[in-house]
Write a structure and sequence with these properties.
It contains 14 helices and 11 strands. The chain has 356 residues and is α/β, with parallel strands linked by helices. It is globular, with a radius of gyration of 20 Å. It folds into 2 domains: 4-168, 3-Layer(aba) Sandwich (Rossmann fold); 173-355, Dehydroquinate synthase-like - alpha domain (Dehydroquinate synthase-like, alpha domain, Up-down Bundle). It has helices at 15-28, 39-44, 46-52, 74-86, 101-113, 127-133, 171-188, 190-196, 207-224, 239-251, 260-278, 283-294, 304-313, 344-355; strands at residues 4-5, 10-13, 33-38, 60-65, 94-99, 119-124, 141-143, 146-150, 158-161, 327-332, 335-340. Keywords: Cobalt, Lyase, Metal-binding, NAD, Nucleotide-binding, Zinc. Pfam families: DHQ_synthase, DHQS_C. One of its GO terms (molecular function) is 3-dehydroquinate synthase activity.
Length: 356
């Protein structure tokens, strides 16, 4: 697969990943190479990665953080910053983030802020990180249960997507990443959406091509609006309600926490319903979206009490301004509209639709 040039970096795929990475190390000669992993990627991905890494005489230090969204916190950042300092990292050090979206988001933020910025490279190992989290330069951590409230936009030196790492991924994590691919179709390409919702016509050999297409879509959007002043907001479709739902389930221990993609899938159905009321999305397309998402994602029980608390969390969404909640909605599949204002009554209607 051809590499994809972003605004400030390049996304490499499979066999090109290690030649590009090792070439970068040879050319730049970092003072120390740090590899950030979580407890899963330490066991399942790190050995294979280190076999392919050509570091010469440069010291490699591995830093491990706990796995899971609940550890995407400033406290963990402090631990990583402290480890960098303890091992005498300087401004010529390189941080390689080997993991899913939590590792690439947090590691990118740590690198962007340590000594006011050191170089970093993302090697995503989950489908979610490959098609979304690792590309585009968004870094950050959660503030309590509130998603991605602290962070910066700062692209790394490169992204290396080695799809063989997906062999280590539980099925549930694969499904979670698939939600972001579905989103790319809904906001950008009706034909891509149609392909993803008819996977019975494809086999596993098509997965690399579909991942590549998702990265192309995300990169085209990000390149045209790197700091999210306008068009890049469309990447938040499903995320206004999806993030609020994810946060609500994270902060209530009696609930089973949802993976990011599970919450976003739910959010996309809800926001598609809102689209029929606010943007005249055709009800037949709403049915198509609902059916396409529920082919893959199991419905989640959202009680009336849950709904009220979820709506309260919407005020923390990063697209808001002047206290007004702003949604990305759809006029049609592949045709999004940004900065839509929706009443709470309509949101409750959307939950009623979903529960039916």
């Amino acid at each position: 697969m051809d590499s994809i040039t972003t605004q400030n970096a390049v996304v490499h795929f499979n066999s090109d990943v290690y030649s590009a990475l090792n070439g970068y190390i040879k050319d730049t000669q970092p003072s120390i190479i740090f590899v950030l992993v979580d407890s899963n990627t330490h066991d399942y991905c790190l050995p294979k990665f280190l076999e392919r890494l050509e570091n010469g005489d440069i010291t490699v230090e591995v830093m491990e953080m706990p796995d899971g969204e609940e550890h995407k916190t400033i406290d963990i950042c402090s631990g990583v910053w402290g480890a960098l300092s303890e091992y005498h990292a300087d401004r010529k050090s390189l941080l390689i983030n080997l993991g899913g979206g939590v590792v690439t988001d947090l590691g990118g933020f740590v690198a962007s802020t340590y000594m006011r910025g050191i170089s970093y490279i993302n090697i995503p190992t989950s489908l979610l990180a490959m098609v979304d989290a690792s590309v585009g330069g968004k870094t950050g951590v959660d503030l309590g249960a509130l998603k991605n409230q602290v962070g910066v936009i700062n692209e790394g030196e490169m992204v290396g997507i080695d799809t063989s790492f997906l062999d280590t991924l539980p099925q549930k994590e694969m499904v979670s990443g698939f939600a972001e691919m579905l989103k790319h179709g809904l906001i950008y390409s009706q034909s891509y959406w149609h392909t993803l919702t008819h996977l019975e016509n494809l086999d596993l050999s098509d997965l690399d091509r579909l991942i590549h297409e998702s990265v192309v879509i995300k990169n085209e959007v990000v390149t045209s609006d790197p700091t999210e002043q306008g068009l890049r907001k469309i990447l938040n479709f499903g995320h206004t309600l999806g993030h609020a739902i994810e946060s609500y389930f994270l902060e209530h221990p009696e609930k089973t926490a949802l993976l990011h993609g599970e919450a976003i899938a739910l959010g996309m159905i809800l926001e598609s319903y809102l689209s029929t009321k606010v943007c005249d999305l055709n009800p037949s397309e709403l049915d198509e979206i609902n059916e396409g998402i529920l082919k893959t994602f199991t419905k989640v029980e959202i009680t009336k009490q849950d709904q009220e608390h979820i709506i309260e969390l919407l005020i923390h969404d990063k697209k808001n301004s002047h206290g007004v909640v702003k949604f990305v909605l759809l006029e049609a599949i592949g045709k999004p509209k940004i900065d839509c204002v929706v009443s709470n009554a309509l949101i409750l209607e959307a939950f009623e639709y979903y529960n039916r």
